[in-house]
Every structure is written in structure tokens, then in C-alpha cells.
């Protein structure tokens, strides 16, 4: 039984590690391509700024999360050390919130840029969106930093109330129940998740309504083919984003209440999907961005040529 449990644990850690590495490479690719474009052009447009920050935040989120999962599963005694546990938890929260809010900014940006409404406030946003984007990104980072500081403070207080000093007196091992000490964090994180999900849903619905109305106008005016196909593809892309964000929101909420469960495989399933979302959504962004898609295809063609030569 002990061998089976150990083998099962190692298998799970291997799956999570491979999944995290795949997501890290995908997001590192996004960040590197945009950085090279930045060096060449000496400037970035609003879309590239959002994608660069999203790629960087997701890369480091997957990196820290992978290390956290690895040590918490195989070497928990090395993780629950003061102040290592607080620092890793705080950094992981900052990066998770950052990648969540930056991806939300991306959906809002697409909505304002593509949708067409005659509302004066919406027209004002469309004109000023390039100036607003840096402030949205700065606000996302500041909000994530504030939540991370709160997480560190609450975690530190919880650990100080529940520490057991070892015989050597070197480190502190925590023996706490999350549901007893982190209720305030549940409320803060839950509010953040719900707000970002509502923003994504509202942006997607507005954009879908605008594209549907534009599609209907083109049909009425007998305009079709290329423009119509482009709008239909945009509709499919937005719908796929909305479905992914809806599922991701459910798993984010489940991750908050996972401490109430003792079933290890349930928590594993939750974290596997959350890590997969950070990589899969970035892969979809690559496929829907002409510059990123072109760079990816050129790299894949070079790899295929080298493999064929061998």
C-alpha cells in the first residue's frame, strides 16, 4: 500500500510538472516574441502591452505554482517553514490575481476596440482606450499586490497561533486548518474572482451582441463572404473565451473551498485544470493573433526542417 501511494503521488507530480512546463513554454514564447517586436519598433501598442504582461505573469505563476505543488506534495517539511510558506503563498496569490486581472483587461480591451455602439460614453472609451490600458494594467498589478500583502499578513498571524517548535529549534512547522483562519481571504479572493468573471462575461456579451447586429446589417445590405466570415470567426473565438472563463471561474471557486475536502484526487483535478487553463488560453491567443501565429509557424517549420535533415 505504501508503495502504491508513493507511486501514485509521483505520477501526479509528474503530470502537474509536465503541464506546468508546457504552459511556461507557451507563455514564454508570447513574451519573447513581443519583446523582440518591442526592440525592433521601440514601442508597443495596447494589445501587445497586455499580452506581454499576461505572458510574464502566467509564466511566473506556473513556475511558482509548480514548485509549491512539488514541495507541498513530496517535501512538506521544507515548505512549512517560517517565513517560506507565507512568502510562497503570497507570491503565488499575487501572480494568480495578476494573470487573472490582466486577462480580464484583454477581454475588456477587445470589447471596446471591436464593438460598435452609439453610446457617448462607449465612444469616449473607444477614443481613449490606448491611454486607459496602462492605467488598467497598473491597477491590476496594484490590486494583486495588495491582496498578496493581505494574504501574507493573515497567513503569518494564523501560523503564529499554530506553530510547533522542533527539538532543534530551527524551523516552525504549521499545523493549521485553512477553514478556521482564512475566511477573510476566501471573501477577498472570491470577490476578486467574481468581479473579473462578471467583467469578462459582460464584455463578451456586449461584443457578441455588437457582432450579431453587424452580421445582421450585412445580410440586410447583401454584403457577404470575406467580411462575414471574419465576423463569424470572431464570434466563435469570443464564445470559446467565454466558455473557458466560465469553467475556470468554477474551478477557482472550488480551489477556495478545497481545504474542506480530504479527497486528494479532487484537489489534484482542480489544480490540473487551473494550470491547464493558463497554458491553453495562451495557446488560443497565439492562434488568434496573426503575428504570434506567424512566429509560431516559422519556428515549427524550422524544427521540422532540422528533424527531416537528421
TrEMBL record:
Transmembrane portions of the chain: 12-39, 51-71, 91-112, 132-152, 183-209, 238-262, 268-288
Topology of this chain in the membrane: Multi-pass membrane protein
Coiled coil: none
GO molecular function: bitter taste receptor activity; G protein-coupled receptor activity
Keywords: G-protein coupled receptor, Membrane, Receptor, Sensory transduction, Taste, Transducer, Transmembrane, Transmembrane helix
Entry's localization field: Membrane
Any one Gene Ontology cellular component term annotated for this protein: membrane
Source superkingdom: Eukaryota
Protein family: Belongs to the G-protein coupled receptor T2R family.
Protein name according to UniProt: Taste receptor type 2
Organism: Sclerurus mexicanus (tawny-throated leaftosser)
